[in-house]
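Convert to structure. Protein one:
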Amino acid sequence: MIMFAAIAAASAAFAAPMLIPAPREMSVTGGRVALAAADAPKVEVVASIPPEGYELSITTNAVTIRHSDDAGLFYAKATLAQLRADAADASLPCLEIKDAPAFRWRGLMLDESCRFFGKVTVKKLFDLMSRYKMNVFHWHLTDDQAWRLFIPEYPELVKKCGKSGSHEREVPPFYTEGDVREILAFAAARHITIVPEIDFPGHFRAVVRAYPKFACAKGARNAMCVGNPEAVRFAEKVLDRVCELFPSKVVHIGGDECKAGPWAKCPRCMSLVRRENLGGVKGIQPWLTRHLAGHLAAKGRRLCGWEEIAVGFGKPDARGESNNDSSLPDELLPPREVLVMGYHVKPGAKSANMGYDVIACPNWHCYFDYSQKLPEDPYLYFRPDIRWLPFEAAYRFDPYEGVKPEARRHITGVECCLWTSHVWSVPELEWKVWPRGLAFAEVAWSNPDPAKRDFAEFSARAAEHRRRLIREHVNCAPLK
């Protein structure tokens, strides 16, 4: 692993470049080279360089990039582009960089169920993500509010469940297969993997509006009737279509915030409990998780779900959120091959300590719909004293918090999340992602030692990048 070297360690005789994320190793060697040398850098393939990593050498007469894969070359050029933007004159500083990511999954989640933004907005987001070396777009496409992906076998999903929550009134507020292919190609050119999320068994109201038969006859309408074989087959067919459309090896099925109580009133669900010896209604969702994990595994795909799939339902805290700090019995746990997304610190850490690979996205560091607690904020819907995430809190994110040293290898990625129930427009989306996205990007790529992070030094770099974003008409919020 390449060790992180603070930019401040560069020779005091030369100003350090304003790079975000900070390279893992960098030394400013002195001297400058004409900017034109970066137009056609010398490129060398070096097999020993880690995946996505690169080496960038700038001397007084040449610019050289070394890499082992296409992603590494792409990120080297992204760093070079930042250096060009930082150039005060027609020259670049001479330096040596050795760089590689701390995490292979550096994600951003956009909820387009609550609010549909469309292709133009998503593509602009990809351009900014790739600039800052983020490489996974977690696409939340279904929820209680709406269903945003056309499934040919179930056309009523978008006809009856795709009209609400769109700011683009001139286009259908859902994605066709052609739209998805276009967006996939755009993402692939920027080395971004799109991971689709289709929610089962909870957050199911949109499906029930189109196909009431997939819900229990009695009880809550926001969960599927897992005891109904036709509903389970619906889930399988949808996932089959998703696997045909998306090349991602990971498929997210949600799995969060689904109460088991209503299933107790359903004869078909209780019949499933008896038939499969599930030990009660709380065994129903784990059964479905295991079933869909097997279905996806047979297609060479890996199931991902929110933390409840591993640590159970937990107990609501004083703010109405789930601690999810209980554990399911061993016989109900999904296989260790599934991927867990930890949106609270303790459950995420517990999942890693149990042996699951985890994407860390704890809400108090990574939920960008929360207020930034700015003195002047035109998008203040959550009370700042209830849900707030200032810029510095995003930078203080420690993905390994609560994780045992021997389990740290199970923190395989990190992600920031933008839920959109309180995001009404593209300017508001940008305001909430930036500049906190800059802080997240540095943790995701460099993951500097939390005890040694220099927030003032990082803020100086972030201030320069904020100016660049604003010049590009990105509605970037103030740093404080």
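Protein two, convert as well:
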Amino acid sequence: MTKRGVTDMNYPKKGFKLTALMLMVSLLLTGCALLPTAISGTVNGPVYHGDTVTISVEEYQQLLKYAELEEMRQLVSEYYYQEPDEQAMLDGAAMGLLYGLEDPYTFYYDVEAFTKMWEEDEGEYAGIGIQIMADYSTGLCTVTRVFLDSPALEVGMRRGDILTRVDDLDVTAANLQDAVDIMRGEVGKTVNVQVMRGGELIDLVVTRAVVHTNWVNSCMLDEEVGYISLYEFGGDCSPTFNIQMHNLLAQGAKALVIDLRDNPGGWVDDAQRIADFFLPEGTLATLEYRDGTTEYYNLTTDGKEVDIPLVVLINEFSASASEILSGALQDYDRATIVGVQSYGKGVVQYVVPVGSRGAGMQLTVAQYFTAKGNEVHKVGITPDVTAEWPEDDQTMYQLGDLNDAQLKVAYDEALKLLGK
């Protein structure tokens, strides 16, 4: 998705990531790409001669590609008017290397950012409590969620606000990471935030606090229709989803509305686990790699699938793992999809550590297709029933409020599935 789902916890947000196994695999792929491994075509490794090292011709030619960068580093080291921070320069070079791919989903995490990314997945951080979607085609950064009991909610920030300025930084999709870094910080300290709402610029002073991320929330819409809002595929969302779903069933739910609006995605494993609650064995999604190889994400079953009518609610900010889940439920005719065309992020990233300092990177490695082979990237999931969000509606509806026009359509579809 060119609109990357992020929160003020960390940016860029994990879009659609693979399993933790890849973190182990990455140890073989990163951190030693330029180290000499052979001499003169042999596999004996480098040969040390006092202060010199003998390496293969191939490795020498590889090192020559980086000679210009080393020349620049030496010039800075010798002539720059202040003492340079060499590690900061290397971090910048790493960012620039991946920036050259012109892929908004591939980027470098310095040590601090990589640590924050994993903190974010734990669901607690110090910040103001908003989720932001960055649109790389327009440069705009839209608030797609304001967390419950958050500092941002207290000062009146709303879903749909355009983030325009944080302290002295004019915010765009390109520098949203910097804005997020400012919004995170010491608990009790304030940050100045400016948003645009309906063409009007609004200045807010927000006091940072410890923000708790609730991945899932639920309630009954009536005596027979349950409602689950899944905000992101991260943290403990899949077991929490399961618990809350069974709580709804215990309350008498005979149909279920699953709300994936504004859900930017997350870990594919969580999408797979949640799909397993409703689908038997089969293919969840198909991955295609550059070399033409194909990998299948398969559903598993324990014979305990929940067999009640489902309605899934999506919007233009539903992306990545949200599209995997809704696409699978649609392909297997297991759910009615309600809303508007989803975002269309149909590529998959690995998240891997690099080097030995604790840095990392996210790298796009494959394109994915739904169970029936439908393309998602730059296309999205087409709803079975269209339900637009009213243009002039900026209301932050309470959970399960049927004054929410899109939710009301989803609820009506659930009633139809129940024969009402």
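The domain at 124-212 is CATH 2.30.42.10 (Pdz3 Domain). The longest strand covers residues 359-370.
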